[in-house]
Design goal:
With 384 residues, the chain is α/β, with parallel strands linked by helices. The protein has a domain of 207 residues: Rossmann fold, CATH 3.40.50. It contains twelve helices and nine strands. The strands form two sheets. A seven-stranded mixed sheet has the order 3-6-5-4-7-8-9. Helix 1 packs antiparallel against helix 3 and helix 6 packs across helix 7. The longest helix has 35 residues. The N and C termini lie far apart (48 Å). The protein binds S-adenosylmethionine (SAM). S-adenosylmethionine binds next to strand 5.
Amino acid sequence: MFSRRKLIGSTVMATSVLPTLGWGKGLDFQPRGSVGKLERLPTLDLESRDDFNMSYRIFVNGEVRKAAMDRAISILKANKLNINAEVDLKQAITLFENDPILATNMHSYVRGQQVMWSQLRDAIYANGDALMAEMEAADNTGPGKLELNPRMALPDYTKQEIHNQPGGYVGDEFAGHIYYYGTNNFWMGHNYQDEMHIKLAAETPIPADGKVKRILDAGCGDGRLTMALQERFPDAEVWGIDVGGPMVRFSHMRANDLGNKANYAQRLAEDTKFPDGYFDIVTSFLLFHEVSAAANKKIIAETARILRPGGVFAPGDIRTSKGVMTGYRQFFNWWNTRWNYEVWMLEHIGTDYQKVFTENGLSWDANEKTRFGGSANAVGVKKA
Ligand SMILES: C[S@@+](CC[C@H](N)C(=O)[O-])C[C@H]1O[C@@H](n2cnc3c(N)ncnc32)[C@H](O)[C@@H]1O
């Protein structure tokens, strides 16, 4: 199979056959190859737009966010409220919703996000036939396995355009491509070589007996953590599962391209089909805040079922303490839900995960030393 990853530095780039393949099709430019683990965007024009969007994101998340926070503080003070105290969500909305500086911050963020998704999606669709042919050609190749379940019933809560991603994870056949390039932008240049996911894999806690034969990464998305776990545990059987067929399809293609033997399957985290006690470690990164509270409880019950006694559950967005819901935090979570379509964020924040862990026979480790996903991330161990 033609490998776009071998293009950089290759004289083959000058031949006329390349524009009929992959990203190059229909464009004026040749495919631009890869830098390490990053397959570059196909044209200088698109890459420049993406760089611009990223710079804008850095500005909005930095200077503009700071101005919004300062403004929130002055509004709280003017209303004789303690800036560090708990504030009710409704009160926070009333206080901040119509303030122009806070509105500038949130709308700049969302508009930047929309432009970023739309430019990526347009470019991907302009090359849709070739990109689909490439993905299809990779479906049955190895070293890792791919399982797609196109007839699987998709729970309604997954049919959302979370964070404005067009088509979401299940409604666009190129969701994996869109998510991969979109999150490169989202992580503001700090994950081009998967370095953030490699760090997460390095921090993943292991069972006390040190035995790691099988690992599951639930809600694997574009599969970067799954791949990084496979790299850390080369002899383990590593699986990434995701409700989105296009997500695991892209992950499988990318893993194969990079010679990584991780396996991917389109399955639900609440119904994984794996046997009882199969895994030593179950991870997830940024899954729970994008899932309904009812489904989250099922996912944790399923995780407890497939972990062996002493096995470790390390989810990358469940905090051991929800912290103080200050006025600004409440408002931030609300607008992220309302305008950035983080549909399940408020349900996630309202869930008592300690109770859910305990009910399912998982310990709740409140030791907040630095580990997977940051200092206050929950880790559960399956009781014997
Ligand atoms: C924010 S993305 C995180 C992806 C990846 N873990 C990462 O680090 O970028 C959340 C992922 O969870 C998947 N997901 C949501 N609900 C799921 C479910 N019930 N079962 C499996 N995957 C699910 C989505 O399709 C999406 O790919």
